[in-house]
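This part of the workshop introduces the protein records we will be handling. Backbone structure tokens are a discrete shorthand for how the chain folds in space. Once this layout is familiar, the rest of the handout is easier to follow. The record below serves as our worked example for the rest of this section.
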Amino acid sequence: MHVYKFKALDNFHQVVDILLNERIYCPTPSELNDPLEGVLGVSGPALNEGMSPDDKLEATASFWMSAEAELNQYRVCSFSRIPDNPLMWAYYGKGHSGICIELDLLEHATKIIPIQYVRDLSVINRASAHNRLSHKLKQWQHENELRLIFSPEYRQKFIKAKIISIIVGTRLPEQFYSPLFELCKIKKYNIQFMSFNTLGEATRFSINIQKNT
């Protein structure tokens, strides 16, 4: 099962770790880019009208801290179904200056789930953290997201994943060419370049880095 992971190169040590060790970090929900991940649709605590403002504030803060702690016992590994959405390159590939890693997740194929996009998160079962983490608002639909959601029993921060190819953005900075290509040469990864035409249609072509460095 092939999936795609977009990466900016700002923290190049993270990319090196992925390429050398063939593993993907699985963040907690609070580490994801959407600050409302798994939170939207959750009702706050019941407040008594006789409570003082300070007590209401304390009860509300305690509720959300507890909710966040419960949610952060889970880990989420996110991927896209496709590598050729220009919006994904703009957002997660940092303006087409990053890379997209093609991965084979055959080992996890039975556990990976497609995100369900809904107009209103109030329609889902919000009592389940797993269910909340498998739904997003339709505004995110362009991501074509697939997820691995690990319950609190899963103690690992990384998953192993076979790397198939590295797709390079059209604005890859020159200083990354040599280290990136050398890593791919050592690991024998296929390198591809991604470009888009005036209709936003994608084209990919490969280069032989075993001869060209």
Notes: The radius of gyration is 20 Å. The longest strand covers residues 162-168. Residues 2-207 form one domain. The CA atoms of residues 164 and 184 lie 11 Å apart.
